[in-house]
Design goal:
By secondary structure, the chain is mainly beta. The protein has 2 helices and 12 strands; from the N terminus they run αββββαββββββββ. About 25% of the residues are buried.
Length: about 160
């Protein structure tokens, strides 16, 4: 596990160099620091997580806590896709879910959009750090399971994707 002081030192080192991206794995934890322009983005994830999606039939390791919402209309229930062949993009951390890079910017993805493994689908804010989340699956966004600004848990499903 990385100590906060180590992460701060690495951010300073990356900021002072021409390096734009740094990934380190240590004692089962992966640290990625990316510097697009002059803003650093840091994400820390447990290394054993090979991907950020889980096949839909499998249970998530942490209970999903969906946002309170109105009951879906009968049409929405009838139009609900068969989720047996869908993949879930899950949160690799506890944080706040944001669909767009800023309040006035368009969402990263919408239902019906095609994504690749490297497509950024949202930002997760944790401890004032903005962490972009990549789809890690190629396919079509079928459903967005959380609301913008909602607090999400580790392992909570965020998107359903129909893989290609």
């Amino acid at each position: 596990m990385f100590k906060l002081s180590e992460i701060k030192e690495l951010i300073k080192l990356v900021d002072q160099t021409s390096v734009h991206e740094l990934e380190i794995e240590n004692e089962g934890t992966r640290l990625a620091i990316r510097k697009p322009g002059r803003i650093e983005t840091v994400s820390v994830q447990p290394a054993p997580i090979a991907s950020a999606y889980v096949p839909a039939p499998q249970a998530a390791p942490v209970q999903d806590t969906p946002a309170p919402a109105a009951a879906p209309s009968p049409e929405a229930k009838a139009a609900s896709p068969d989720t047996s062949n869908l993949r879930r993009i899950v949160s690799p951390m506890v944080g706040t879910f944001y669909r767009a890079p800023s309040p006035d910017a368009p969402a990263f993805v919408n239902v019906g959009d095609r994504v690749t493994e490297k497509t950024v689908v949202c930002i997760l804010e944790a401890m004032k750090l903005m962490n972009p989340l990549e789809a890690e699956v190629k396919g079509e966004i079928v459903e967005i399971l959380v609301e913008n600004g909602q607090l999400v848990e580790y392992g909570q499903a965020l998107f359903l994707v129909k893989p290609e």
